[in-house]
Amino acid sequence: MSLVSIRDVRKSFGPNEVLKGVSLEIAKGDVVAIIGRSGSGKSTLLRCINGLETYQSGAIVADGIEVGGASTNLRELRRHVGMVFQQFNLFPHLTAAENVMLAPTVVNKVSKAEARTTAAEVLAKVGLSEKMDAYPSELSGGQQQRVAIARSLAMRPKVLLCDEITSALDPELVNEVLRVVEQLAREGMTLILVTHEMRFARDVGTKLVFMHHGKVHEEGVPKEVFAAPRTPELQQFVGQVG
Amino acid sequence: MSYKLQFTELLPYWNVLLYGLLFTIVLTVVSTAAGIAVGTASAAARTFGPLWLGRIVAVYVELIRNTPFIVQLFFIFFGLPALGLKLSESTAAFLAMVINLGAYSTEIIRAGIEAVPKGHIEAGLSLAMSKWEVLRHIVLNQAFRKIYPALSSQIIIVMLGSAVVSQISAEDLTYAANFVASRNFRNFEVYLLVALAYLLLALLTRSLLRALGRVIFKAR
């Protein structure tokens, strides 16, 4: 059974339809790389999965919770569906450890001590044990993004949504973040990534989704799709970015 | 044109003046605390609350910001008794101050809330926090940090503006000055002294608020 199931989702911003009937099945342990031109609806689709955006028709079910209805328990949904953003969005008034501890203490009501143990564990996982008490302004972009990943992991999500998480980084900092994501993939975390890192999508992804004009234009096993893109649009896209 | 300063003639009234000074200080401290609480709640309602509540807040804010403080004070003290709500001079003074600062600080705090990047709010929501948890733990701290200097200035403005409450015989520093001057006719001395007292109070408040800010918002 799918962990995330997207069926014929349509979404418009005013008169502009950005998702024109998207369907996608994502199983536990999948590492899905969503690629496509800007404006093709990739980020919007991702944001619909954890309810940051609403959609007009179709259905999304994530971890058994139907997303998008008026009665959707967004809190329950988001406890299981984490998200990491392009702009890191660390809370600047809190240290790295406090950033990680906030949601577990506020949402899950765990004790400060327990939350700090978890924070130490997830920050170690992203290689930032020694930066626990540093403020975001004292960290590089790559380090900030790794804290943001740790912050999501502290909630023990079943799916992690990554929205162009390396796009705001200097080129030399991209790899340290990708290594963390790759490690998560190896450990079996279900990941849905909107990305421009084609090599990463090919090497780490288990599934490639090419979006074009608000639709899934092509999907399949990354290595096969990259080796032999069927549609001219993907051929052209791969030619431009690859 | 020669005037002989005689500050000694104020000495018999030292207790009246001291009481007035203390009244002004307490009035400022209490109405600052309550006014900022009102302002925070109103700003939160306007940015995070339902539309109808935001509208009510907007009416409150515009009503207060576009009418003179002394008229608000008179309305509360002289007007409300017509509705059966009769308040003492001090209660009316406190209430008017809280309502006034509440409205001005609403706009200041709202500006702070709106300056917090939307991404921070989305990050909080994505961590399964509720809107109100996001407001409390992520937004307000950052908002207050940004608007603290503006809010400090507003507190001083309100403190100086509190002199107006003497007009309904609330026994503040200005009331004390009026009282003394009417007794010994030493207008020059008494208003000079009281002006200096306000000046000192304002400077003191400013440095106190600055020190407080350094403690609350530790430098990063």
Automatic annotation (TrEMBL), chain A:
Q: Which GO terms describe its cellular component?
A: plasma membrane
SMART domains, per this entry?
Answer: AAA
Pfam families according to UniProt = ABC_tran
- Where located? Cell membrane
Q: What is its main location?
A: membrane
Protein's UniProt keywords contain Ribonucleoprotein: no
A single GO molecular function term of this UniProt record: ATP hydrolysis activity
Q: How does it sit in the membrane?
A: Peripheral membrane protein
Tree of life domain: Bacteria
Q: Which residues form the ABC transporter domain?
A: 4-238
What the entry lists under InterPro entries is as follows: AAA+_ATPase, ABC_ATPase_HisP-typ, ABC_transporter-like_ATP-bd, ABC_transporter-like_CS, MetN_ABC_transporter-like, P-loop_NTPase
Q: Does the keyword Membrane apply?
A: yes
Record keywords: Amino-acid transport, ATP-binding, Cell membrane, Membrane, Nucleotide-binding, Transport
Query: Into which family does the record put it?
Result: Belongs to the ABC transporter superfamily.
- Record function comment: Involved in beta-(1-->2)glucan export. Transmembrane domains (TMD) form a pore in the inner membrane and the ATP-binding domain (NBD) is responsible for energy generation.
Its protein name is Amino acid ABC transporter ATP-binding protein
UniProtKB/TrEMBL annotation, chain B:
Which UniProt key words apply to this protein? Cell membrane, Membrane, Transmembrane, Transmembrane helix, Transport
Pfam families listed in its UniProt record: BPD_transp_1
Q: Mind telling me which residue stretches traverse the membrane in this protein?
A: 69-87, 147-170, 190-209
Q: How does it sit in the membrane?
A: Multi-pass membrane protein
List GO molecular-function terms, semicolon-separated. Answer: transmembrane transporter activity
Whether ATP-binding counts among this entry's keywords is no
What is an annotated GO biological process for this record, any one? amino acid transport
Q: Which domain of life is it from?
A: Bacteria
Q: Which residues form the ABC transmembrane type-1 domain?
A: 21-209
Q: Where in the cell is it found?
A: Cell inner membrane; Cell membrane
This protein's GO cellular component annotations are: ATP-binding cassette (ABC) transporter complex
UniProt record similarity statement: Belongs to the binding-protein-dependent transport system permease family. HisMQ subfamily.
NCBIfam families, alphabetized:
HEQRo_perm_3TM
Name by which UniProt lists this protein: ABC transmembrane type-1 domain-containing protein
**What is the scientific name of the source organism?**
Bradyrhizobium valentinum
